């Protein structure tokens, strides 16, 4: 979290001095001491540094003290309620952050319907459409999608050392993906650029992409696309080692979250078919002779003697 909060521009404290107090927005839900502690600790940070990922991380690292986690989240919600009213931010990054005290699977995965909705709103040729398609096909994190450029593509092969783990991931770009890349204007090497033709930071990208999701009525984050990508790969038959290679994971347990889920679904369907077959073999009394008749043949007429 600290790495994401290094920016000092547009820090919180000067804003409070010139635009009014944020305390009004959190009064009544958080104790004065807890509120002051959170605000003072983060007073020098830029508002734009607080993405959904950063706030979720702040909640998660306080998991051993749920009350502190709750105070942190409530204070952040109050702060950004104030910031939106003062038009200092366009997006409230606290929306979608999981509250403390509940077991969660992290950020919710996108659905196929979410992808359809996003595609319906954002046409090919826009940077947001390109970003979404890259994250879906290649499973790139936001920290990588802001870095990927022409220099990482050789023919139809994209290869990049991931920012988070340093692992190299190599994927094949489909013909459709290559067409989306070619259709998207850019000024430099980076595939995804901001409105000024400059590369995004991962924080600014996260906020920008959330706005684009909201415009398409999608309530998920960029990370949720990576989850859908891995789910589609597993459902399509990708093995654990293949998932490790594409998504740059080093922990086999992470890949098995997806493969085991698919295996459970497949095995459950297979088991239900076995049960159905066994039910079909249960004998029921014949209405005339009393002899056993299997359920499969219950509707058949017995030959006359």
Known CATH architecture of the domain at 112-222: Orthogonal Bundle
What's the arrangement of strands in the largest beta sheet?
1-2-3
What is the 3D form?
Answer: globular
What's the CATH topology label of the domain at 112-222? hpI Integrase, Chain A
Full CATH superfamily name of the domain at 112-222: Intergrase catalytic core
Strand content: 5-15%
Q: How far apart, in Å, are the first and last alpha carbons?
A: 84 Å
Uncertain residue ranges: 1-33
Radius of gyration from the alpha-carbon trace, in angstroms: 26 Å
Largest sheet properties: 3 strands, antiparallel
CATH class of the domain at 112-222: Mainly Alpha
Q: Strand pairing plus helix content: what structural class?
A: mainly alpha
How many helices? The count is 13
Total number of beta strands: 5
Which H/E pattern describes the elements? Answer: HHHHHHHHEEEHHHHHEE
Helix content: 40-55%
Mean pLDDT rating: 79
Could you walk me through the main structural features you see in this protein, from its secondary elements to its overall organization?
It comes from Rhizobium meliloti. This is Tyrosine-type recombinase/integrase. One of its GO terms (molecular function) is DNA binding. The chain has 305 residues and is mainly alpha-helical. Among the domains are: 83 residues, no CATH class; 111 residues, Intergrase catalytic core (hpI Integrase, Chain A, Orthogonal Bundle), CATH 1.10.443. 50% of the residues lie in helices and 6% in strands. The chain contains 13 helices and five strands. Strands 1-2-3 form a three-stranded antiparallel sheet. It has a two-stranded antiparallel ribbon with strand order 4-5. Helix 3 packs across helix 5. The longest helix is centred in the C-terminal third of the chain and has 29 residues. The N terminus is likely disordered.
């Amino acid at each position: 979290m600290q790495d994401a909060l290094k920016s000092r521009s547009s820090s919180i404290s000067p804003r409070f001095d010139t635009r009014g107090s944020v305390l009004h927005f959190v009064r009544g839900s958080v104790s004065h001491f807890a509120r002051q502690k959170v605000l003072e600790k983060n007073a020098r940070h830029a508002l734009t540094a607080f993405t959904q990922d950063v706030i979720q991380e702040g909640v998660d690292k306080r998991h051993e003290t749920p009350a502190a986690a709750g105070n942190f989240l409530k204070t952040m919600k109050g702060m950004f309620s104030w910031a939106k009213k003062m038009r200092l931010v366009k997006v409230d990054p606290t929306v979608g952050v999981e509250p403390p005290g509940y077991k969660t699977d992290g950020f919710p995965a996108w659905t196929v319907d979410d992808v359809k909705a996003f595609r319906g709103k954002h046409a090919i040729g826009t940077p947001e459409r390109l970003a979404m398609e890259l994250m879906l096909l290649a499973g790139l994190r936001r920290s990588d999608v802001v870095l990927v450029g022409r220099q990482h593509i050789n023919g139809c092969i994209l290869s990049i050392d991931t920012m988070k783990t340093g692992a190299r991931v190599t994927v094949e770009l489909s013909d459709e993906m290559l067409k989306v890349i070619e259709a998207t204007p850019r000024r430099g090497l980076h595939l995804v650029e901001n409105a000024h033709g400059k590369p995004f930071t991962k924080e600014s990208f996260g906020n920008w992409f959330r706005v684009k999701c909201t415009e398409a009525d999608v309530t998920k984050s960029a990370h949720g696309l990576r989850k859908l990508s891995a789910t589609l790969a597993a459902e399509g038959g990708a093995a654990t080692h293949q998932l490790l290679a594409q998504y740059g994971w080093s922990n086999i347990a992470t890949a098995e979250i997806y493969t085991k889920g698919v295996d459970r679904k497949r095995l459950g369907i297979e088991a239900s078919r076995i049960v159905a077959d066994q039910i079909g073999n249960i004998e029921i009394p014949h209405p005339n002779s009393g002899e056993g008749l299997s359920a499969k043949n219950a509707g058949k007429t017995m030959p006359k003697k």
